[in-house]
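Agenda item 2: 5-phosphoarabinonic acid complex prediction
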Amino acid sequence: MDYQERSRITLDYTGMISSSQNPQGFLLEELLGLQNVLDQAQTSLMSQRDSGKLDFSKLLASMKDQVAEIIDYANAMAPKYDNFVVLGIGGSALGPLAIHQALNHYYYNELPPAKRGHRPRFYVMDNIDPVRFNELLEMIDPHKTLFNVISKSGNTSETMAQFLIIRDTLRRVCGDHYSEHIVVTTDKEKGNLLPIVLKEGYQRFVIPAGIGGRFSELTPVGLLAAAICGIDVHQLLEGALMMDQWIRDSKGVLSNPAQLRAAIAHLSWQKGKNISVFMPYADGLKTMADWYAQLWAESLGKRIDRQGRVIHVGQTPVKALGVTDQHSQVQLYVEGPDDKVITFVTVEKFKETQEIPIDLELPEDIQFMGGRTLEELLLAEQKATEYALTLAGRQHQKIILPTLDAYNIGQLLLLLEWETAYMGELLNINAFDQPGVEEGKNGTYALMGRKGYESRKHEIEEYGKTRYSL
Ligand code: PA5
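Presented output:
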C-alpha cells in the first residue's frame, strides 16, 4: 500500500534528534540501534495478534462489516431522542468523548437541532459525583433520552450504580416502555449486566472479548455514540485500517510510525524522562489527551515484568493544551526538571479560519497581527514553544494531522494504540491488564458490602483505624 496515497499523519521527530541546537538529543544511531529489539517486539506482537490477544487490530476489518447494524440502529434512534447519554467510565467513556469533541461542533449540545442534523445532544456521565448526576437529570427529559450503558466487564460499581438509578427513574417515568430507553454495550458472555439485559430485553451491542476497555473505541463502545451524533464512522474505520496496515507492513524504526514513537519513548524513559506530555494545538483534541493519558498510564504503569520481577515502570502522562497551557505549564517544561518528553499534536488545515482585523490606528506592537489569521497565530505560538524548548535542551516531537476529520482521527487512535503495545514489549510488561485498578475495584465492592468480600472489608477498615489529620 502506498501510505502517501491519501492524507496521512506525519511524525516530525526533529526535536528529539541531536543537532548543534539540540546537543542533548538522541543520535539517529541510537534509534537504529533498537532495531533488533523492535524486530523481536514486532514478531511477538504479530503472534499475539494471531492468537487473539490484539483484537483492537485484528478485528478492525470485521468491525467494518458490523458497522451497518450500528448505523441502522443509530439512524433509527437519532430522530426519536433529544439526548443520548453514555453511562460508563475509563475506557468505556473517554473514547466516545474524545471522538465527539474532535469531530463535532465544539458547542454541539448548544446548537439548534437543525444544525445538529436533528441528532440528539450528547452527554457522557463518567463519574458518580451526586451533584453532577442530579444536575444532568435536571437537564434532560427521560422520555426524550436514550441511555447507553457501556461496561466491558458488566461489573464496574460506578456504571452499575448509574444504571440502577437510571433504570429506576425510567421505570417510574416511562412505565412499561422504560427498556426502550436503554441500550447496553457489554461483553458477549460475561458480567452481571448481561443477564439483566437479556431478561429485560434491552437493545445490546457486543464488545469483543479480546479488546480491553482503553483499546475499545473502534468497537460499538465508540462507534455507536459516534454514529448517533452524525460522525462518519466508515471514515474513522478507514483511517484506522490504513494506519493498522502501515504499522503491520513496515519494517524498520524509521518507516514504522508505532516503532518510531515507541523507540523514542523507550530511549527517553531510559534517559530519565519519566513524564510524557501530550499537548494538542486544537481545542477539538483536548479530550483526546485524556484518552491518551489513560491508554499510556493504565497500559504501561506496571509493578512487575513478564517474569514477575518487580520493576515499577511507566511514564506519567500529562495532558496539556496549546496555546492555553503555554500560559500555565510551559514555564515548567522549559526551565523545570529535565524529565519530560513533549508530544505536540498539530493540525495543518483547520476547518474554519478567522482573520485578525487590520487597524492602522493601533500601536505597532498590536498592529503587526492585523491581516493574519488565528490559525497562523496558533501555529506560530506552537513553533515558538518548540524553539524555546530546543534552546533549553528539552526534547519534543510532533504528530501532524492534515485536518481534523474522521479519517485522520482513526489513524491517530491506531497509532497511539500500537505505540502503547510496542512500548509494552520494550518494557517487557503486559500492557493489556490493569491489576492496580482491579485492586481498587475489589476494595470498593468490599466497602459497599458485596458478598464474598467480607475479609477484604475487615482489612480495609483495620488499615483505616489510625488516622493523622489536622
Ligand atoms: O481500560 C480499561 O480496561 C478500564 O479503564 C475500563 O475501561 C474501566 O475500568 C471500565 O471498565 P468496564 O468497561 O468493564 O466497566
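Discussion summary: The pocket of 5-phosphoarabinonic acid is lined by residues 89-92, 151-153, 156, 159, 212-214, 298, 434, 437 (CB under 6 Å).
Owner for follow-up: CH.
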